[in-house]
Amino acid sequence: MKHTFSVTIERRSGLSDPEGATASRALTDLGFAGVHSVSFGKVISIELEADTAQEAATQVEAMCRKLLANPVIENYTIENVS
Amino acid sequence: MTIAVVVFPGTNCEHDARYALALLGSHAELVWHRDDDLSGATGVVLPGGFAHGDYLRTGAIARFSPVMAEVERLARQGTPTLGICNGFQILCEAGLLPGALVANRDLRFICRTVTVRVESTDSILTSHTSVGDLLQIPLNSYEGNYVLPAAIDGAPSPNVVLRYCDSSGASGKQMNPNGSTDSIAAVADANGTIVGVMPHPERAVEDILGSTDGRVLLESFVSATASVVA
Q: Is B92 noted as a catalytic residue in this protein?
């Protein structure tokens, strides 16, 4: 059975995020006066085969821990979008 | 084997590293990342470049190359292990050094010679230097911004080996080229035998390169490997 997951990876708060800081300044310069902060992340879409949604979710969780995210600097959230 | 210089797909400083080590009277061999036997190595160098294209994150794929299990085994038993630039990023991803490297503060690739100050001589990279020595070493990186969440989490401070500074030896935001935490340019594990350095000492070993200040760093490394019984 095919499952589709969306993994969102974001920089841990409090860490240097040069892209977010630059975009935040640019938005403020463009007149969006209410911008407090901007942070960048990435979205990874994964299709995989597994017998159950639970088993698929467990695998995706393991993928995040092992490779997709660096827990030293990043947090991740997993969503089943099948 | 003597010193193993590991080559990943996308590594591009392996010949510079081997050349510099040879210049200092040492012998290094290039080792392909699929090799899984480094027995006999007296030291390991992970050179600069863009291992596996730096896809996902710098070093993220490289740390799972077959050779890395051997690199980790040797590093954990105290064999001198030096990661330069991309090699520093790989050592962090592999969990052999604390922290991580992210995009430079100003989002620019930095390619210029910088001044670094020796903070500790208790490492395989600085044993032949003195604390406070100022060295001119080329920096060549986009993701050279060292972040250390441990500092946020209240963990012990890292074993800082080199810091970015100006020509008088002063550190601070103005003299910090890439935004690295506490101006850190090189860091070691607690024993000083695993070191990651962002600037390239192997590119500062002859007058024609504009600086020979990298020699004393690599001499320290070579000296450390000479005492290893492989």
A: no
Three-class SS state of B113: strand
Q: Which value does ipTM take for this structure? A: 0.85
pLDDT in tens, B136-191: 999 999 999 999 876 556 566 789 999 999 999 999 999 999 999 999 999 999 99
Is B93 a catalytic site residue?
no
Q: Across the interface, do A16 and B92 touch by the CB < 8 Å criterion? A: no
Instruction: Indicate the residue of B56, B64, B149 with minimum beta-carbon distance to A73.
Output: B149
Predicted confidence (pLDDT) per residue in B28-80, tens digit: 999 999 999 999 999 999 999 999 999 999 999 999 999 999 999 999 999 99
- For A2-80, the fitting CATH number among 3.90.226.10, 3.30.1280.10, 3.40.50.720, 1.10.260.40 is 3.30.1280.10
The domain ranges of chain B are 3-226
CATH fourth-level superfamily of B3-226: Class I glutamine amidotransferase (GATase) domain (3.40.50.880)
Calculate the CA B88 to chain-centre distance.
5
* B221 and B125 Cβ atoms separated by less than 8 Å: yes
Catalytic residue status for B165: no
Measured between CB atoms, which of B61, B64, B149 is closest to A15?
A: B149
List, as one string, the DSSP characters of B162-223. Answer: EEEE-TTS--SGGG-SS--GGGEEEEE-TTS-EEEESS-GGGSSBGGGTB-THHHHHHHHHH
Q: Which residues of B touch A70 (CB under 8 A)?
A: 57, 60, 93, 100
